[in-house]
Amino acid sequence: MAQPANIPYTTLDSFRGEYGRVTAIQPEDCVGAMWNTIIISIFPIAHFALERQAMNPGGFPDITVSAWTRNGNNLFRRPFLVMETKKAPSDGGPRWEVAEPQLKRYLEGHAQTAATGQTGGARLYGAVAIGTAVKFYTYNRRKGTLNPMYCQQQAYDVINDAAVVIKRLQQIMNNH
């Protein structure tokens, strides 16, 4: 399996710059840009593809991470991590109840394309990032349920909880 980068994303100037743009007055694409930096610091480009707004039957997820696998001469795209990003909150806090159903719909869309053979099957993970806070999820295809990864209750902060964020992303990378 691919090995993650050994440099924590919090030390990268690209992360620091994008992190500084994540404020309540900036649009949600600033959150997506910050997460692009985090993801490419963990998932080696030689083994994974990062897509923005890639359409599936569930809509247009903000970020999709896929692995490409070979079956003989054919390559199959295997989406396995889907992210929904929302701008930093300005009025009292994150709105998980809005973003989680969107994420579930996107994961259902990827499960549907895998079931019809349009993409390769993979264990599906999701994440919702609201400003600098993130929650990770697993998607149960059989039951159609979105479940907090490792029973996560509270959101992780990308700076204060960076070690946990890195660990979760590495677990996703190694177990998709």
Describe this structure in words.
This is Restriction endonuclease type II-like protein. It comes from Aspergillus cavernicola. It is a single chain. The protein is of the alpha+beta class and 176 residues long. The protein has a single domain, classed as tt1808, chain A, CATH 3.90.1570. The chain is built from 4 helices and 7 strands; from the N terminus they run ααβββαββββα. Strands 1, 2, 3, 4, 5, 6 and 7 form a 7-stranded mixed β-sheet that branches. The radius of gyration is 15 Å and the shape is globular. The N and C termini lie close together (10 Å). The mean pLDDT is 88.
Q: What is the level-2 CATH architecture name?
A: Alpha-Beta Complex
Helix content class: 25-40%
The CATH topology: tt1808, chain A
Major sheet details? 7 strands, mixed
- Oligomer, anyone? single chain
What is the domain total for the residues?
1
Secondary structure tally, helices: 4
Give unreliable regions as ranges.
none
Using only C-alpha atoms, the radius of gyration works out to: 15 Å
